[in-house]
Automatic annotation (TrEMBL):
<dbReference type="GO" id="GO:0006355">
    <property type="term" value="P:regulation of DNA-templated transcription"/>
</dbReference>
<keyword id="KW-0804">Transcription</keyword>
<keyword id="KW-0805">Transcription regulation</keyword>
<dbReference type="GO" id="GO:0000156">
    <property type="term" value="F:phosphorelay response regulator activity"/>
</dbReference>
<keyword id="KW-0238">DNA-binding</keyword>
<feature type="domain" description="Response regulatory">
    <location>
        <begin position="8"/>
        <end position="122"/>
    </location>
</feature>
<feature type="coiled-coil region">
    <location>
        <begin position="128"/>
        <end position="155"/>
    </location>
</feature>
<protein>
    <submittedName>
        <fullName>Two-component system sensor histidine kinase/response regulator fusion protein</fullName>
    </submittedName>
</protein>
<keyword id="KW-0808">Transferase</keyword>
<keyword id="KW-0418">Kinase</keyword>
<dbReference type="InterPro" id="IPR039420">
    <property type="entry name" value="WalR-like"/>
</dbReference>
<dbReference type="GO" id="GO:0000976">
    <property type="term" value="F:transcription cis-regulatory region binding"/>
</dbReference>
<keyword id="KW-0175">Coiled coil</keyword>
<dbReference type="InterPro" id="IPR005467">
    <property type="entry name" value="His_kinase_dom"/>
</dbReference>
<dbReference type="Pfam" id="PF00072">
    <property type="entry name" value="Response_reg"/>
</dbReference>
<dbReference type="GO" id="GO:0032993">
    <property type="term" value="C:protein-DNA complex"/>
</dbReference>
<feature type="domain" description="Histidine kinase">
    <location>
        <begin position="171"/>
        <end position="380"/>
    </location>
</feature>
Amino acid sequence: MQKKYDNKILLVDDDLKNLQVAMSILRDYNVIYAQSGEKALELLEKNQFDLILLDVVMPTMDGYFVCSKIKSNEKTKKIPVIFLTVKDDEKDIVKGFELGAVDYITKPFYSEVLLKRVEVHLKLAAVMKELELVNKNLNEKVKNQVEELRNKDKIIVQHSKINAMASIIDLISLQWKEPVDKIRLYLQSLDFKFSNIQEYKSDKTFKKTLDEVKKLDEIMNDFHKFFNNQKNKEEVNLKVSLDNAIFLLKDELNELNIKLNVKGDNLISLNIVFDEIKHIFNKLISKSIENFKITNSLVEKKIDISFENNKESVYIIYEDNANNYDENQLKRFFESPNLSKYNSFDLGFYLVKVFIEKNFGLLNIEKTQNGIKYSIRFDK
């Protein structure tokens, strides 16, 4: 039979007449009865109750003992207990409260009193459960917020350390660059001075030394770019930044007879740090030159660069026909977070990816029939 209320109540009394009266009054609730303390504890182990009505005077195990067992059990200690008693002695009432009871009702029962007491304590128990749930959720939320703040503090500390390290490395790279520049100038002067001496013409040691110094200079420049992020973005014309990169590599392009074609809108601009977009062009062209040097192809060496523009994005398409790329190696350079495991790792080349992603761009690499193609997209 469907009850008016879903609450489950345990009624404990050794007097059958009292049980019948109480169950008649509480007929709208789901009431299970027990005629002894032992039976009550057995039922509590197998069922979930919202309220316990417990007689004080019972043989073998009185209500006080049963209450103490209920309150010492983790599973049942939060169930409210109302004592049923014929006693009206103050000491007995106080003892019941000390054991954890929430109220008491004297017998014989008055219907309205019993119903109202049961209703009040069921509502209080429901409110307490709700408060516990809210408190638990609040504690969890506070715990998560504290953890989040701790993580943010860790990130701030890490960033502070990184910034401090970056400043030191940036300073070191600048200090190294000065003597490297001087060494390169001295070597170039000596190369020019001895260029007419026959024994030096066939000796490539000088030229190789100069090349290595040049590489060292480029590494120092790359370190400086990597750790120095103080420059602000500006509207940069792509063609102008490309021309600046080409100018630095003009001699090598001419020496290898590499034809460089630029197509598309020459007026396209991008909001970016000038040195970063210039670096992207410089390293892509340098990588092409590097591969053209070791290619045996008799085909005309070409680099094609095109600029495209629409409402949402700016595209830079870069292709060459130096058909000796290790495409997988290039992708590993760009994708791997563990850069140190590649012996031939090129920081300057990796910075191409760093600067593209720093400016919320996307880089795609694909091997073509004759060479390689880089597609770069910057969203506006």
